[in-house]
């Protein structure tokens, strides 16, 4: 069975979100993969963050995933702050010359840069 299929099977059988290390354990215990490689947890984490699986699962908290289903509340994306509302302050990068060459300095609006 391919990694993607094994991960989906574990998530389909789960009643709640599952951490990627637990997904790995269940794959190995249930024998869903013949070979798991040197670092199967890293493989599962990578699979969860790449297409096509990234479109089929939803991350509900750090490291925990569930299948994206239209009939469950887990699949709802978390609201993102709107740009320009003051909710998000991004640092400005300015260039300054030093004796050794150039370097970037990070400054925020509170540092007096308009």
Written description of the protein model:
The chain has helices spanning 3-13, 20-29, 40-48, and strands spanning 18-19, 57-61, 64-67, 92-98, 101-107. The N and C termini lie far apart (57 Å). It has a domain at 3-75: Arc Repressor Mutant, subunit A, CATH 1.10.10.10. It contains 3 helices and 5 strands; from the N terminus they run αβααββββ. Helix 1 (3-13) packs across helix 2 (20-29) and helix 2 packs across helix 3 (40-48). It is globular. The strands form 2 sheets. It has a 3-stranded antiparallel sheet with strand order 1-3-2. The chain has a two-stranded antiparallel sheet with strand order 4-5. With 114 residues, it is an alpha+beta fold. The longest helix has 11 residues, at 3-13.
CATH topology name of the domain at 3-75, in short, is: Arc Repressor Mutant, subunit A
Element order: H for helix, E for strand: HEHHEEEE
The largest sheet, given as strand count, sense and whether it forms a barrel, is:
3 strands, antiparallel
Secondary-structure content class: alpha+beta
The termini sit apart by 57 Å
- Determine the fraction of residues in helical runs and give it as a percent range: 25-40%
Tell me the strand order in the biggest sheet: 1-3-2
What is the level 1 CATH name of the domain at 3-75?
Mainly Alpha
The gyration radius over C-alpha positions equals 21 Å
Count all strands and give the number.
5
Relevant CATH superfamily of the domain at 3-75: Winged helix-like DNA-binding domain superfamily/Winged helix DNA-binding domain
Count of runs of 4 or more consecutive helical residues? 3
CATH level-two architecture of the domain at 3-75: Orthogonal Bundle
């Amino acid at each position: 069975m391919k990694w993607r299929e094994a991960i989906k099977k574990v998530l389909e059988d789960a009643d709640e979100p599952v951490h990627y290390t637990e997904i790995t354990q269940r794959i190995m215990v249930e024998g869903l993969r013949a070979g798991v490689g040197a670092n199967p947890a890293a493989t599962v984490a990578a699979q969860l963050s790449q297409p096509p699986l990234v479109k089929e699962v939803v991350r509900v908290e750090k490291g925990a995933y569930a299948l994206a289903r239209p009939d469950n509340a887990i699949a709802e994306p978390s609201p993102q702050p709107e740009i320009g509302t003051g909710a998000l302050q991004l640092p400005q990068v300015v260039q300054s010359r030093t004796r050794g060459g150039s370097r970037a300095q990070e400054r925020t609006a509170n540092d007096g840069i308009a």
